[in-house]
Amino acid sequence: MAGEREILGKLRDAIVALDIPGLQEACEEAIATGIPAYHAVVEGMAKGMEIVGQKYEEGEYYLAELIMAGETMREGMVVLEPHLTAGKVSHAGKAVIGTVKGDLHDIGKNVFLTLLRAANYEVIDLGVDISPEAFLEAVQEHSPDILAMSALLTTTMVEMENVVAKLESEGVREGLKILIGGAPITNDYAEMIGADAAARDAVDGVRIVNGWTRAG
Ligand code: B12
């Protein structure tokens, strides 16, 4: 049977090749070999997405391939997800998550929410292109411990500030931890807009959230 490194390589390469059957097979092989599903996502599939992003920037891949890579990753998640959440009963906390208004990027957000669910959190996913009003409504409806927002565009990250301001003006900011993430997001930006933290990546995001819920 193939070793862990080889299987993680297969997961990565199947994403890059946009090979859905090959990816699903590699995901099943990962589970059968005892590789933690968490690892298969972060060290396998997400590495493939990084390469896809580079190929896009170098002009080797076009938008069609990017969208297809997202679809391929989703199909892999279908195989891994039951193994990420198996056996969990009570939740460590509740999170509402979405990509901000004007922004349709959801692959990174989905990696993060998958890892958060794997870490035993209840996650309400609002999807993409979420307005400050819709974030507010979700917070009022679900009373989460954490609000997480994603933005991949420098033109849409400013929406995060609007969300924080909206929550403050409606009096629901207190007691809520706000985490932001996405390629253009920095700690300085989080501090400037009044968010509680910025995550470097999805794994860092889970670490930050665990720090909040376990401290309290
Ligand atoms: C895939 C992609 C797309 C896909 C998105 C498909 C989808 N379903 O998401 C499509 C084709 C739709 C797309 C469209 C566009 N895109 Co685009 N896209 C990308 C690309 C290549 C990869 C992004 C990605 O998924 N990476 C893989 C994931 C796993 O990484 P990630 O998103 O960074 O997420 C990680 C962390 O940031 C973090 N994270 C992300 N969110 C969150 C949230 C929280 C709470 C936490 C904790 C962590 C976290 O966790 C993840 C894993 O560690 C990037 C280039 C790049 N290399 O990043 C350009 C890029 C983001 N796109 C770009 C642009 C310009 C566009 C378009 C405007 C193009 C156009 N001219 O139409 C449109 C905008 C559409 C819109 N309104 O949103 C630019 C943005 C430039 C900028 N700085 O503003 C980039 C950087 C490409 C470039 N170099 O020009 N895009």
List the keywords.
single chain, 216 residues, alpha/beta, Methyltransferase, Methionine Synthase (B12-binding Domains), Chain A, domain 1, Rossmann fold, 2 domains, five-stranded parallel β-sheet, 9 helices, 5 strands, 59% helix, binds cobalamin
Question: How is this structure best described in words?
Answer:
- Strands 2-1-3-4-5 form a 5-stranded parallel β-sheet, with helices on both faces.
- Helices cover 59% and strands 13% of the residues.
- The chain folds into 2 domains: 4-85, Methyltransferase, Methionine Synthase (B12-binding Domains), Chain A, domain 1, CATH 1.10.1240.10; 94-215, Rossmann fold, CATH 3.40.50.
- With 216 residues, it is an alpha/beta fold.
- The mean pLDDT is 91.
- The chain has 9 helices and 5 strands.
- The radius of gyration is 18 Å and the shape is globular.
- The structure holds cobalamin (B12).
- Cobalamin binds next to α3, α4, α5, β3 and β4.
What's the quaternary structure here?
single chain
Helix content: 55-70%
Question: What are the secondary-structure elements, in order, as H or E?
Answer: HHHHEHEHEHEHEH
CATH class of the largest domain: Alpha Beta
> Averaged pLDDT, please?
91
Number of domains: 2
Tally the beta strands. Answer: 5
Judging by the overall fold, what is the CATH architecture of the largest domain? 3-Layer(aba) Sandwich
CATH topology (fold) name of the largest domain: Rossmann fold
What shape does the CA trace take? globular
Bound molecules: cobalamin
- Bin the strand percentage: 5-15%
How would a textbook summarize the main sheet? 5 strands, parallel
Structural class: alpha/beta
Computed Rg: 18 Å
- Poorly predicted parts: none
Distance between the termini: 44 Å
